[in-house]
Design brief:
The complex is a heterotrimer of chains A (about 350), B (about 400) and C (about 170). Chain A is mostly helical. Helices cover about 65% and strands about 0% of the residues of chain A. Chain A folds into 2 domains: about 1-85, no CATH class; about 90-350, no CATH class. Chain A contains 12 helices and no strands. Chain B has one domain (about 65-360): Orthogonal Bundle (Cytochrome-c3 Hydrogenase, chain B). In chain B, helix 4 runs antiparallel to helix 5 (about 145-165), helix 4 runs antiparallel to helix 14 (about 370-380) and helix 11 (about 275-300) packs parallel to helix 14 (about 370-380). Chain B starts with about 25 loop residues before the first strand and ends with a helix. By secondary structure, chain C is of the alpha/beta class. Chain C has one domain (about 5-165): 2-Layer Sandwich (Beta Polymerase, domain 2), CATH 3.30.460.80. Classes of the chains: A mainly alpha (about 350), B alpha+beta (about 400), C alpha/beta (about 170).
Amino acid sequence: MEPLLKFALDLFPGLSQLPHWIFVTLVGVVAAAVLFGFTSVFALFAIWLERKVSAHMQDRLGPMEVGGWHGWAQPIADALKLLMKEDIIPENADRPLFKMAPAIVFGAALATFAVIPWSRSFIPSDLNVGLLYILSISSLGVIAILMGGWASNNKWSLYGAMRSAAQIVSYEIPISLSLITVILISGTLSMQGIVHGQEGNIFSWNIFRYLPFMFIAFVIYFIASLAEVNRTPFDLPEAESELVAGFHTEYSGMRFAFFFLAEYTNMFVVSAIATVAFLGGWLPPFEFLGFIPGPFWLFGKAIFLVFVQMWLRWTLPRLRVDQLMYTSWKVLTPFSFALIIIVSFWRVLTL
Amino acid sequence: MTNSNNFPEARYELVNPDPLKTDEYVLNMGPQHPSTHGVLRVLLKTDGEIIESATPYIGYLHRTFEKHAEYMTWPQIVPYVDRMDYLASMNNDLGYALAVEKLIGLEVNERAQYLRVIVAELNRIASHLVFLGTYGLDVGAFTPFLYAFRERERIVDLFEEISGARLLYNYIWIGGVAWDAPEGWLDRVDDFLDYFNPKIKEYNDLLSYNKIFIERTANVGVIPADLAINYGLSGPSLRGSGVKFDLRKDDPYCIYDRFEFEACVGSGLKGTVGDTWDRYFVRIQEMVESVKIIRQALKQIPDGDPKETVPKNVRVPKGEIYFRSETPRGELGYYIVSNGGKNPVRVKVRAPAFSNLSIIQAIAPGLMVADLVATLGSLDIVLGEIDR
Amino acid sequence: MEAKDIHQKLKDKFQDAILEFNEEVLQPYVVVAPDKTDEIAEFLRDDADLQFDYLNSVSGLDLGENLGVVYHLYSMTKKHKIVIKTEVPKEKPDVKTVSHIWRTADWHEREAYDLLGINFVNHPDLRRILLPDDWEGHPLRKDYVPQESWHGIPTTLKKEEKDDQQQ
């Protein structure tokens, strides 16, 4: 938080007049509001991007009318429509849980933004256990999915929620294991520390070290993160053709919009973590490009990974639930274990 | 909740009356469901993800075709016949027209026969394209659906030129066809075939040989050949189980004996013989065979007026006939009973999807819910002809 | 095998149950007694010369005073066909089921029961298939009059509306 506080004091010297705790709270609230604004705008942009990407891959055009140039205002129109819809809660639904579920899902996704480093100074909170914090907070999303599925009082939603819980919990393991290889290399759990360990040029990014093992670790992380976000080929919990819409079948209007927003925010979060851990975070690939500010690099790399996620969604069919479990426990996890052993041996023997 | 609209009350089947028995999970894949290919209800009893029994309930699209047919004159039935299997209406028309012509003993003009074969095979390709797209959707691949419909648009445009309609054509009449092909239509069919041939390779790359697709469909929903025959399966679903039986070759009708083509059979290439991948791949291969048939027909088609043998008044003598033809779904049978009058006494339609669907009760136990969706999709049912 | 050879084999085995044989029509048929349909069906399927393993369809007919059932059979191995018919009076329309011989008949017989009211004895699950479970009457019969309404929905137009429509 210190760099942020310094940054704020530089901008507004008058703030030093306030008592310290008001000052810290104010800066914190403003930072949170900025991030919330960013996630909302990003979610709108991602929805538009998804529709355009899917359309062009399917040999059609996508939104073209709303707003003039390639329908850029389409998601805004969608959001307005969702806001104006009737809020239907099924009769026998568990009302408190039903209402809490979207909020917790979105909250968990948003909370991870606290430790993502945008540049040398803009990181809301430079926890020295940043990576551990991210892994723990994103697990809270599972509880919210289970709440949503159970509280809907609908067997199909329950099916979707059960599958989703099983899937997310199983895929956390390959994610954590592949991130352990990163921690072994960087020697720290702090997000800024991991980025600093990759300073140099493009070939000192973590993905290119200890070739090819870190690259394999990146691939394992990427596949497992697809499962975390419930994207095809792992989108069984919301498989349209089987469970109508899985755990968010019964949600309508703004509550559904929250689930949707949370999904796109999660996509960005896992991409941002992949960027920080493997692709150098806010560092430019070459020194001479350093005049372009850090947030641009982080955002650009994360958007590229989001684009790859969308690309995969519209290309591949989905895996069945037992094949999903098989992939996680019998393929990704043993490989990640093997990677940890290899990387640690390599590191120890060459130190 | 008060039912103030006088709508029928919802009725639930008491399948699991014991509230303390919690190991069975009764699930209703209801009439409205994104992947039951129509209004079909399947009542599932599952143990977690594994299905113990699946009972299909049909009748939601029953439009009393057979009763209607008894009140209409013979040519008036043709548009109604279209609407049963709405994805392959030319084939429905063809079966009915051929059945009545056999009863009358009518000879049909050569050009009309060739036009009939061309449109029937084009409709087979269109129907299989819809199958391809929706099957991909069932399994989770969204994109092949759009590609398949892109091709189908071109076929449907050709049909619009020749018959005036995009889906339900009323084109093949008793005694011939309704309209002759317009100027240049046959060349446009040829152009379409040139355009379409490389697309099949595209579908194979995108879907058929995709590893995830194979994992979802190989060794799933295996139907052994003798079970298939006993349940009255027909068409690609039967051929997928290894039984080489194609009505166009084994019991030729119309002029199919003049063309050279293969009956495609499932061979267990990616799993066991008779699994869903086989049934899917048989349909892909059938599209290639249909292209061959159309090309040969385009070469052999004579000139003439295809409407000249269409009678002004259709008089059907006393008699009865069961006539079967090969539609994209299987063996479509028309059992027509006439007593010499203006209207038929009985028109019974043996719909292929009706028997194809009944096998679900036998093969569903042991499958997982996701597999059931894949298996139902691979049988390629159309509720319009199941319920008539 | 020709139709008359098939008829001869059936006559040799079942004598009185085989009632009629007509080979002048387009598709020759054999008329059998309704209470022996299951035995005849088993013989047709299992006999080495006949091997009728594929049942094309089971159709019901309304013949005025009687109800008829028509079976169309085909042999995949021998490639011959035959038509088997049977007739039952409307007051007691009992026909022995063949659904345990050819599973195709399961749903086809349910449909014949649903639309025509033919009772298939020993059928494992004889209930309506196309119409709702509580529908009254068998619509495909020639003397069928629809019920007035079903769960509050009228089933036919009222007479004044019909006159308006026809004008």
